[in-house]
From TrEMBL:
It comes from Methanosarcina thermophila. One of its GO terms (molecular function) is ATP binding. Gene3D superfamilies: Triphosphoribosyl-dephospho-CoA protein. Coiled coil: none annotated. This is Triphosphoribosyl-dephospho-CoA synthase. Pfam families: CitG. The lineage of its organism: Archaea, Methanobacteriati, Methanobacteriota, Stenosarchaea group, Methanomicrobia.
Length: 342
């Protein structure tokens, strides 16, 4: 492994800015990735308590740390999304041997980081923070960046697959297994956004690109709402609150999003029926959680056995809701940009 020779040299356009802002954005992205993989129990996914045979908790930690320079560059960039994605994958792969860890997360974090850089560089002072009403602006600006992608972004995106080894539903006309696909992309001048439009019906991340990052915003709002309720509960409690609440917030949000939206990674790896079952089961657990009221509102300890049982079932069957985890990372990133602390 040679982390000093990963090919990270992204010739993208940028602007002169306060370097502290791009550093702040990159740290928010790192913390979002670290918090997501640390949250437990997060049914079916790698966390601090469970590994997969070939991919472990430490692989995700290494990947989260390694991508810092790419996210910082993204925060200073206004183009070059495809190369930034490939650079992120290269950095991640150079620092760990667990294979694909954050491919979907990179697809979301890079345009969101570009949008955050644009927003925060408009007359901000320390401490840097997005206002709640700016979350929608952030998503809209990220959507504008992805809509502006070009054919070279699509080519770089395909090259990233050679490094990442991602499981996807290939677009027949531009199959990832076809060595001539990049030539076809150039011949037809297909942009990366157009590729996402083709895949939006069966890929959660592609749908985020084309629909304006709505589920990322949804995740951010659920997380911040949960943490606000946790703070109010702690303030009115006669005893000290146990823990920071962030782990519970992530698990709750994970179940919430999973119950509302089928995970397309599961659908790709297994089938639609399996994805629907997982969403239904998450909804059942969540419904029980939300029936608690008063002092027991969202009592994590009371629901822990059911969540752990669900986690064990999915791990045993090798069913991992990876796309939902990517959305959680993006939601955490937005919440952290908005000042979430714990």
């Amino acid at each position: 492994m040679n982390p000093t020779n990963t090919g990270f040299a992204c010739p993208v356009s940028g602007w002169a800015e306060n370097p502290q802002i791009s550093s702040f954005i990159a740290r928010c992205a790192q913390l979002a990735m670290l918090l997501e993989v640390s949250a437990s129990p997060k049914p079916g996914n790698v966390d601090r308590e469970h590994n997969y045979p070939d991919t472990c908790f430490e692989h995700f930690v290494a990947s989260s740390v390694s991508v810092y320079p790419v996210i910082e560059q993204a925060a200073r960039s206004r183009s070059g999304i495809g190369m930034l994605i490939r650079s992120a994958v290269c950095e991640s792969s150079a620092w760990q041997n667990g294979g694909n860890t954050h491919f979907g997360a990179f697809l979301l974090l890079i345009p969101l980081s570009m949008a955050a850089g644009e927003l925060l560089n408009s007359s901000r002072i320390v401490p840097y923070k997005l206002l709640p009403e700016e979350f929608e602006v952030l998503a809209a600006n990220a959507h504008a960046f992805v809509r502006a992608t070009n054919c070279e972004d699509a080519v770089e995106f395909y090259r990233a697959f050679e490094v990442a080894g991602v499981r996807v539903n290939s677009v027949d006309e531009f199959s990832l297994e076809d060595s001539d696909s990049t030539a076809k992309l150039r011949a037809q001048e297909v942009t990366l956004y157009e590729l996402m439009e083709i895949a939006r019906g069966y890929d959660l991340i592609a749908n985020e690109w084309t629909s304006g990052f709505g589920r990322c915003l949804e995740g951010a709002k659920i997380i911040t709402g949960f943490m606000q309720a946790q703070t109010q509960k702690a303030e009115t409690s006669v005893s000290n609150c146990s823990g920071t609440g962030i782990n519970e917030a992530i698990v709750y949000t994970f179940l919430k999003l999973l119950s509302r939206h089928r995970d397309t990674f599961i659908e790709t790896k297994f089938d639609k029926a399996t994805a629907e079952y997982v969403s239904s089961r998450a909804g059942e657990i969540l419904s029980t959680w939300e029936t608690f009221s008063g002092s027991k509102a969202r009592d994590f300890a009371a629901l822990l056995p059911a969540v752990q049982e669900f986690d064990s079932e999915l791990l045993r069957k090798r069913i991992n809701p990876g796309s939902t985890a990517d959305i959680i990372i993006a939601g955490l990133f937005i919440a952290l940009l908005g000042g979430l602390r714990f």
